[in-house]
Amino acid sequence: MSDFDAIDALLAAVGPQAELPPPDVRRELRERARLSKAQVARTLGVSPSTVGGWENGRDPVDETRKRYAYLLDGLAAKFPAGPGTEPLASPSSSPSPSPSLSTSPPPPAEDESEDDVESLAVPEPCVLCGSPAGHRVAGFAQHLDPADCRSATTPGTRPGPARESSPAATPVPSAPAPEPSAPAPEAEAAASRGRSGAHRPGRPTGPAGRAFQEPHGPGDLIGEAVRAALDEHRGDIDAALAALLKRAIPDAMRLLDETRKGARYDIVAHPWIPDILRKQTSRGADQVWEARPKWTRRELPPGRHEVTALDINGAYLSALKTHLPLGQLEHTAGLPHDRRRAGVHLITPPEWEHEAVLPNPIGNRDEPGPLWVTEPTLRLLLRLSGPRHALCAPPEIHESYTSGATENLLEKFRVVLKDARDAAIAADDEVTLEYVKAMYSKFVSTMGESNYNRELYRPDWMHIIRSQAFSNLWLKALKAHDEGLTVVRAMGTDELHVIGDWHRVFPEGRGVTEVKTKDVYTAGSGETGDTGETGDKDETGDLSGEGE
User: Fold this and answer.
1) Considering the chain, what is the average pLDDT of its residues?
2) Are 197 and 210 a contacting pair, CB within 8 Å?
3) Which residues pair with 331 in a beta bridge?
4) Cα dist. 534→488, 523, 531, 543 in Å?
5) What are the start-end ranges of the E strands in 5-142?
6) Which of 127, 211, 318, 366 would be 177's cystine partner, CB 3.0–4.6 Å?
7) Long-range contacts of 505-512 (CB under 8 A, 24+ apart)
8) Is 215 exposed, middle or buried, given 0-12, 13-18 or 19+ CB atoms closer than 10 A?
């Protein structure tokens, strides 16, 4: 390549990007074509929440922008605005406001954050009753309020949860359903994202809310990916595994989207983030303290002791079950802890008087005074201050950034990964095992300020999941102590050293609810209680990889 060729290539790379219509027009074009966000996302290789972001003001870049612009140009040519067609000018077509931060869901007419519920510029016949409906659920025009569905129930029958099993409450369509633009299986899969009808006020609670749910969960995406990689590399295990590890993040996001189908709440992938969750410098950290354990007992009972280093399996995988905020974080000050919400909190931690036998729940911290901690750390401190344990005083909460929360936001995602991990261990399949481990560990580590995962930007989730892993380890140390074992060391997410018959306390194995032996060594000397040790141990406690 000549110097001028290189310059031409550079100029081409920094040239003007493809033009995109305004966000409201992007949404209008998709609605006129009767395409769901899931269909567009699948075609462009992104998540439905990303498409929603594009329709609310964010812009794609590079090749994705070109392909999105090409799609919109094609839709504009195929579905031009006719003389009687009005542009979307209702409030619901403008960029969505910040999600409701209360635990009570927003009214249905304003709930535009979900991928499956879309406002219609022109009413269409309801798929259940045939009367004009102003919303489309997963590609099908429907009434959001059962009372508006004129023929959804027989006269004298009130729709609602108490009538779900009653034959009289079964919807009887009075007009043929509109022909969906997507094939039936795809429409059914998209329709399964109508996830809030059975629980939110104003949404169908009977059969109408379940009219088009897919019968099964996500397919064997993990197994399919492993088989495809092995076929592509002709059975070369090392090459196949290297390829799988490179795509672990996008594959994890795809699996997340599949496991979210039918879920009650949508994921807010790019909310506003407070400054305390942003890095203070380009290479520095933010202000949130994760309470990572790094503790060694100062003195042991007199004599020499056999110490077992236990390895906690799948620590980050188990930590996916934690209270995560649904929407963007809202600031409060001077309020007590609300268990229906989750986020980060500025607290003054209580004094810890049990350092001789148990690590401090907030980890090793040199600076006194208030600090920002995550939801798992605060809940652990509150639990330990309660009447059951009474190990410390309650922490003092000064201010918080929280949102309405659920503990089960990633539960189906976690279960799919756990089942794949269990099956891989049973089959001695190291390729699948390492692939699954990379999926959940990289998923956690890249949801903050990372260039490797632009689908999800939730540094609050990253800190919360990590802290949950640390909290889980601390609770195992407490269990060991309560059961009469001597706790010698607690490090990172997955390392617990104990003296005593640990088999009566913890089950042994490779499952996520089990532990396995990492090392056995002797410690202590004479009558001094010295913790002099022998054995091969990690002195840093910085265990980036989890024992599998």
Assistant:
1) 77
2) yes
3) 401
4) 13, 7, 10, 20
5) 117-125, 132-137, 140-142
6) 127
7) 505/479, 505/480, 506/310, 506/476, 506/480, 509/313, 510/313, 510/425, 510/548, 511/313, 511/422, 511/425, 512/313, 512/314, 512/317, 512/318, 512/418, 512/421
8) exposed
Instruction: Count other C-beta atoms under 10 Å from residue 113's C-beta.
Output: 21
Q: Answer for the pair 512, 433: CB distance below 8 angstroms, yes or no.
A: no
Q: Are 403 and 327 in contact (CB under 8 A)?
A: yes
Cβ neighbours of 396 (radius 10 Å): 11
The continuous run of DSSP H or E covering 344 comes out as strand 341-348
Between CA 399 and CA 334 the distance in angstroms is 6
Residue 238's Cα: distance from chain center in Å?
30
Distance in angstroms (rounded) separating the CA atoms of residues 362 and 380:
9
Distances (CA, A) of 273 to 140, 260, 278: 34, 23, 8
Tell me the residue type at 185. P
Q: What is the DSSP letter of 179?
A: P
Which residues have a Cβ under 8 Å from the Cβ of 77 and sit 6 or more positions away? none
pLDDT tens-place string over residues 304-343: 999 999 999 999 999 999 999 988 899 999 889 999 999 9
The pLDDT of residue 136 is 63
Which of these, 121, 133, 262, lies nearest to 146 by C-alpha position? 133
298: which 2 tokens? 């100062």
Structure tokens at 209: 């809310």
Cβ atoms of 459 and 478 within 8 Å: the answer is no
Beta strands in 53-178 (DSSP E): 117-125, 132-137, 140-142
Q: Residue 132 in contact with residue 148, Cβ under 8 Å?
A: no
d(CA 519, CA 320): 27
Per-residue DSSP letter, 505: T
